[in-house]
Amino acid sequence: MEDARSDQNDKTAGIVIIGNEVLSGKVQDTNSPFLLRELYEQGVRVLRVVTIPDDVPTIADEVRAASARFDFVLTSGGVGPTHDDLTFEGIARAFDVPLREDPTLKALLERHFAGRLTPAALRMAMVPSGTRLVRGGDMRYPLCVVRNVYVFPGVPEILRAKFQVVRHELQGTPFLQVRIFTQQKETALAASLEATLDRVPGVTIGSYPSYDTREYRVMLTLESHDAHQLQEARDILLSLLDGSQVVGVDDPSEITRTPGEP
Q1: H-type helices in 56-199, by residue range?
Q2: Pick the CATH number of 176-254 from 3.30.460.40, 3.40.50.1980, 3.90.660.10, 3.30.70.2860
Q3: Which candidate, 74, 80, 122, 126, has a CA 20 to 30 Å from the CA of 111?
């Protein structure tokens, strides 16, 4: 489990996975795990991941709420030419703006289809008014951004390539982390974790039991944007734990951005 107190240095994000095929189990979602890892590395804390159907009112409700709550919203899926690709329509409704034909997107589609542009394919040029087009890298088709909503396709390979292009925009303050490994049970640790959070509320503490190793029973992670605050919490927590049960501790000089195993 993980317990976090408010840290105003945080940049936050919500991820909205859109697609009946994901909800029915026909397609496995690999996009949200990728985005979670990448955003963490960027110092952005993801506070919500939701999977929803191809339904305009549902898309509108989720995007509207997420846009108001988080610094960044990342959607995946529903941007193709078929009848169930409704993401742009839902986002337009979320912000109460019309869909419009973007001339840049239309020109790209005309060039790509070389005289074979169908009305269905042309739907991909219909985007919410105020959409910003982001181009870069090897992308043949821009990423569409509507306010703070980054609209990614559902195809994992394309999503990952487009993420790299806007990575610099999705930036927060890097997370720092130290770990403590103990043979104590989680039930015996709860009071010490709560007391540490009360004294250093800007730190996030995670408690992760392990059942496949004898080296430790629980790994504790302490995370913050502030190295001094992190070391203070580490020292307080160690003073509260049963020292005879602690089997591993990250040294303060080894504060790292990358979580890992001992």
Answers
A1: 56-69, 87-94, 103-113, 119-122, 156-166, 186-199
A2: 3.30.70.2860
A3: 74
